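Please predict the structure of the following assembly.
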Amino acid sequence: MRIEVNGETAYCYTNSREIEADKPTVVFIHGSGMDHTVWTLASRHFARHGNNVVSVDLPGHGRSTGSPLVTVEEMAGWVIAVLDALDISDAALVGHSLGSLIALECAASHSDRVRAIALVGTTSPMPVSDAILDAAEADDHAAFDMLTQWGFSKRHQFGGNRNSGIWMIGNTLRLYERSGPGVLFHDMRACNEYASGTDQASKVTCPALLILGAEDRLTPVRSTRALQEAIPSPVVEVLPGAGHTIMVEAPNAMLDALHKVL
Amino acid sequence: MAGPDYPGLDTLALHAGAQPDPATGARATPIYQSASFCFPDSDYAASLFNIERAGHVYSRLSNPTNAVLEERIAALEGGVGAIATASGQAALHLAIITLMGADSHIVASAALYGGSHNLLAYTLPRFGIETTFVDPRDPQAFANAIQDNTRLVFGETLGNPSLDVLNIPAIAEVAHAAGLPLMVDSTTTTPYLIKPFELGADIIQHSATKFLSGHGIVIGGLLVDSGQFDWEASGKFPTLSEPYEGFHNLIFTEEFGPAAMIQRARKEGLRDFGACMAPTSAFHILQGIETLSVRMNRHVENTRTITSFLLEQEQVTRVGYPELEGHPDQALAKELLPNGCGAVFSFDLAGGREAGIAFVDALSVFSHLANIGDAKSLVIHPASTTHHRMDAEALAAGGIGEGTIRLSIGLEDPKDLIADLKQGLRAAGKAAGGSR
């Protein structure tokens, strides 16, 4: 569905259902340069299991209009504005990569609106290499290539998708290619500059789940120690064989893990 | 700025889509010869049916062996996904019925494989899908033939039988300007010789029976989606951009983004028309693809040797190979097909029908049959076989003479192929002499 948020059209995938006040809500937030389609399997699953699902396209992404937002804090404010527009009092937030930082920020700054968070392919801080930032700023295809290749585990460079017939490297690359000029750069810079993640993590009061790829090369498991220590009593699931693009590389294991907090 | 390197074609041909078998550790992709797959529990079953989990339900819809082949061809072509079908014809049909219904129209090259021509010219009109055939060498002819109800532009990378080189960039531009996708049949070229998606094509069809499998032992087809065409922006493809009642009002572009077309083809076309590939066929095709580059390189090398030999023969009045002087597409071939123009071509023998028949009957290394793309060299005389119902005038309109011979050059030692051809030429000469 399309709603108006801050004067722009915000697209939210809802599994073609209306939001029902008596159902719990799960909000899915995609990562840099992506859109809601990365969550199709998971959002369909939680919709069938009695939830409102709201899988957003961040401003300037997918079907949402407007310019991409600049900071994680702004993006978190936008997610809360989406909840307001849909008249949803609180929700569980599932975010991937940049989306995980947005979910974390929401949980810390708007704790009354967030009943659980699941951070997928996450770490904090989330530094981005100059090579990626420079290429993204120049709208150079090399940025898509770097993120696509490093975004999958080494074994998944050759595919092995359990979702039949889909070449996940190609599909991810096409999603990046569909993003508008400058969108990826704004997203990557927001990740790079979000310095308060571990401080904010210590303020989280809701149940928190970290789903990590054992072979993640962009946000390696070893880099998540500070975040794991900052969040009070997180549940941590490390998925064997998966890289950073966990929704695609390990869709079933991710779904099973999500059930631990959702 | 250069990004990191993706695996090369040869590496993908061996590895894409495959992981050592998780159940047994088998290095080769196992043949999962099973109609159905067990569900751990009822909720898991429901989640598979509702596209919530990745996995297999029933081998008409998907199968683990086929899935490896599908990923492999999608990787080799640089697409988002693929579907393995019962034959190349099934792949063409699957693409068409995914994109359109009755009262639709296709613009196609007139230089098509006979089976494709039959489907478009005779069969689909009964179901309300008409085709206008145009000169494959004339992009403007494609533009002129596009109607309000046109939904697809279609051609072969190398046309049949004259090896017209399809100007993919120019024809893609024509199609895209009209909000239409370009689909190409790349059977004779394979990803080793041309990468149609990099040139602007949107969908690729293969008969995997030919060079991809490479050994003449299996029938199969592949449909590959580039994920580059914007179906919503076009506004002409409600099967992809509007709710589908046959799957709880799912909108494919909304839920699958770049993979909308290939997902609809699986969820509807494969489900309802059922032209799936047998897992054993997928296994055979995978074995062929592992050696694609090595074979295609040798196919082309042998073809160049044979065409050079034929050019020197007095009885041979024409050799139709795009790399040769005099072929109308020589310059385009050099640009689009630098690694070669495949291993199937035709040539004309002096002496007409009798010479052609005598030539074919005298060969012993070349096999006389109706196929192409085998490791073994093949020959056929179209005027007495595939096109036997046509008179001389009709043959000429199709670019075929009574003395035309079609060869599919295999991987044998070229000296043995030349010796065999010499034998055929001697017999043809005698037949031509006798008929004078």
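Chain B touches chain A through 53 residues (CB under 8 Å). The first strand of chain B starts at residue 81 and ends at 85.
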